[in-house]
Specification:
With about 300 residues, the chain is an alpha+beta fold. It is built from six helices and 19 strands. Helix content is about 15%, strand content about 45%.
């Protein structure tokens, strides 16, 4: 069994028994039941890219770790085939009983560099699990959207929204994004039964997001009970000034309860320009729990 991971431009499938051990803006570390399994880092490249220069940096970084021997490694044909959409250079290392094998990748289409490594890899062309991961690895979509899928949530957002910050606390996940005129936040609360024990959905949304309950309107999202708040300025000649204001003047919030998943999801958009109703509808439709909604690996 595999599960999908999508984070800040990177998408891949990993074994269902693996878990995210560390998450940063452009860095993921996966653990397996046996221990550390895989690490991946990536980022945009300005100007020319040299695999050799990056490999030399990796080798230089190991000089202060006696006993760790990192060197260039010829990728096996199975890896080369799985990574054919990238230009790639392999590396390997050993340290006592530990070892690692990985590669430095570059995507000519979107100018993204990727470094990944697997820990304690066995020989014999590596195993099927690793080859499946490499086959699934992608770094850009062709529809100007960015997929997000970590832990039990997944979303599909316009590519103009850039990740600002995030938190994954017990019971409360938050992802914050922004573009030139708007800020967007995705929320996930669980277990919903605990949050809704002494209040209804409207009161919970008001208390949590600092809203007035009387301003929330009941609605539905994908047949799930929801509440919504929206503020749009009165149309007029002064609309052209809104993008130049320092603070947002348009606001939209929706919070909905998914009883069968025992989850509450929420979205907040604050904007200095009129809110695109079609965009908010798409974001809602593509923000889900578990395997509902989008396939993030498309």
């Amino acid at each position: 069994m595999q599960k999908s991971i999508a984070w800040n431009g990177i998408r891949l499938s990993i074994p269902s028994t693996w878990e995210i051990g560390r998450i940063e803006a452009r860095h993921l570390f996966f653990d397996s039941p046996a221990g550390p399994a895989m690490e991946i880092k990536w980022g945009p490249v300005n100007g020319r890219f040299s695999h050799g220069s990056h490999l030399k940096k990796l080798i230089a970084q190991q000089k202060n770790r006696p006993g760790k021997n990192l060197e260039e490694w010829q990728l096996p044909p199975t890896w080369e085939k799985a990574l054919s959409r990238f230009t790639a250079k392999g590396f390997s290392w050993k340290m006592n009983t530990e070892n690692g094998r990985g590669a430095i990748l570059f995507c000519p289409s979107c100018k993204t560099a990727i470094m990944f490594q697997f820990f304690n890899v066995k020989d014999a062309n590596t195993d099927i699990a690793i080859r499946n991961i490499l086959k699934s690895l992608k770094d850009h979509r062709n529809d100007n959207q960015t997929a997000w899928a970590v832990f039990d949530i997944q979303a599909l957002l316009p590519g103009t929204f850039q990740l600002n910050n995030y938190q994954f606390k017990p019971g409360n996940y938050q992802l914050a994004f922004s573009d030139k005129f708007q800020s967007l936040k995705l929320f996930r609360w669980a277990p919903a039964s605990a949050f809704l024990t002494q209040s209804d959905l409207s009161q919970f949304a008001a208390n949590t997001l600092d809203l007035h309950p009387a301003n929330l309107v009941s609605t539905f999202t994908l047949e799930h009970p929801a509440v919504e708040w929206q503020v749009n300025s009165t149309p007029g000649w002064h609309h052209w000034l809104f993008p130049f204001k320092r603070k947002p003047v348009f606001h939209w919030v929706r919070v909905w309860h998914i009883p069968d998943k025992n989850r509450i999801l929420g979205i907040r958009l604050d904007s200095r320009k009129p809110i695109d109703v079609g965009m908010t509808g798409d974001i809602c439709g593509n923000y889900s729990v578990g395997v509902l909604g989008i396939n993030c690996l498309n």
